Amino acid sequence: LCPCYNSHGVTDVVALSSEFDCAELLLTNGLVPLAGWRCADDCKYNCMWATVGLYIKEGHKVPQFHGKWPFYRFLFFQEPASAAASMLNGLANYVMLNRYRAAVPFQSPMYRTYISFAMVTLNAWVWSTVFHTRDTLLTEKMDYFCASSVMLYSIYLCCVRTLGLTRPWTASLFGALLIVLFGCHVWYLTYVHFDYGYNMAANILIAPSTVTIQHRNRGPLDLLNRYIKHGSEFNNV
Question: Could you tell me if 98 and 208 lie in one domain?
C-alpha cells in the first residue's frame, strides 16, 4: 500500500510524507510548489496513480476519486488540457471585449450591460483556469460559483435586452431577484451541502429560461438580421 494511506487502503489519508519526499519533490519539479502543492498533496497524487495501477492490474475499470477522473499532472497544472482550454476561452473573451469597446459607442443603451457580462464571464474563465491548475476546496467552489454567475447574468442580459429598454424598473427588480437567488445558491453549497448534482441541475434549468425570455420578444433577432445586412447599425445596440 502507498505510505500516504493507512492500513485500510484507499480511505483515510494520513500525513506520512517525509522531509526526503519533500526534497525529492522540489528536485524533480521545482514548479509544483508554486501552485500550492504541499508534500502531502503530492503524496496523495502519487497514491492516486498507484491505486489506479492496482485497479487495472486486477482487471477493474479506472476508478473515480471524489467523483472525478484522474488526470496526469504537467508541470504544476493538475488538469493541463482543461486549464489550457479555460485559458484560451478567457483570452478569446478578453480580445472580443476590447473589440466591442473599440467598435461600440459608450453612449449605447446596452453598452454597460454587455461590458459587465464580459467581465463576469472573464472572471469565470480565470477561476476555471485556476481550478484546473490546482484543485482545492476553494478553487472548486469559486469555479462552480462563477460559472453560475455567468448563467444568471445571461438571464439578466436577456431581460434587459427584451424589457429593460422600455421598462427599466422591471429589469432592475428582476436583477435584484437574481442576486438573491445567487446568494442563496452560494450559501446552500457553502454551508449546507456541496451537492454536485444540485449544482448541475440548477445550471441546466437556467438555459431554457434564457431562451424563453429571449423569444418572448423578437427584437434581438430582428436586430441581428439588420446587423447582417447593415453592420453600421451595430453602433445603435
Answer: yes
How far apart, in whole angstroms, are the C-alpha atoms of residue 135 and residue 128?
A: 10
Please answer whether residues 44 and 4 qualify as being in contact, where contact means their C-beta atoms are separated by less than 8 angstroms: yes
pLDDT 10s digits, 107-117? 888 888 899 99
Phi-psi label, residue 13: left if phi above 0, alpha if psi -120 to 50, beta otherwise: beta
On whether residue 237 sits in a domain, the answer given is: no
Last residue of a domain, one of 57, 76, 95: 76
**Cell 508541470 -> residue:** 75
Which residue range forms the structural domain that includes residue 124? 81-232
Q: Which of 10, 49, 14, 41 is nearest to 25 (CA)?
A: 41
Residue 214 and residue 159 share a domain: yes
pTM reported for the whole predicted model: 0.70
DSSP assignment string, 96-122 = HHHHHHHHS-TTSTTHHHHHHHHHHHH
Q: Which of 21, 54, 76 is the last residue of a domain?
A: 76
For residue 97, what are the CA distances in angstroms to 118, 119, 221? Answer: 6, 8, 21
Lowest mean pLDDT among 43-52, 64-73, 105-114, 187-196: 64-73
Q: Distance between CA atoms of 6 and 8, rounded to whole angstroms?
A: 5
Residues 39 and 86 in one domain: no
Q: Are 69 and 24 in contact (CB under 8 A)?
A: no
